[in-house]
Specification:
15% helix, 9 strands, single chain, alpha+beta
């Protein structure tokens, strides 16, 4: 669970809880992250929606696709409880990554699993449980 963020998520290994502060904009981001002994990285980050946040989450996949080294696949979009959801995978010569973005009126949540190519099957096997465990905390 993110201490200062408005979300909870289950990671398969112990995690670090962190907050970042942009001194120029004053924006705070809250997250949790961890890295396994195989080099698989799990992260969940909450950032405020700002003018820099894409109105259409599809711009995120276009950004990854702009690099010829990246192959973007498994794109799925939807909505749940008034939140826009985008899921996709990115593979290049050395690594693979799975992403889930959730955009609410106030926040953009980015969930990711990144791994070296050698451990892509192990990372993919954790995707459904990790992404599925994400929950917004109810406000008191």
């Amino acid at each position: 669970m993110s201490t200062k963020g408005s979300f909870a998520i289950r990671t398969p290994i112990p995690f670090n809880d962190f907050t970042t502060h942009d001194p120029i904009t004053g924006e705070m981001s809250h997250g949790v992250g961890c890295k396994s002994s195989e080099g698989i990285k799990f992260a969940a980050i909450e950032s405020p929606v700002t003018s820099k946040t894409p109105a259409d989450l599809g711009a995120i996949t276009k950004s990854f696709s702009s690099s010829p080294a990246n192959k973007v696949s498994d794109i799925s979009r939807g909505t749940q409880d008034e939140a826009a959801i985008l899921m996709f995978s990115v593979t290049n010569a050395t690594s693979t990554a799975h992403f889930k973005y959730i955009k609410t009126k106030a926040a953009l949540y980015m969930l990711s699993i990144e791994s070296p190519i050698a451990h892509r099957d192990l990372a993919s096997a954790t995707k459904e449980q990790f992404f599925g465990s994400f929950k917004l905390k109810s406000k008191p």
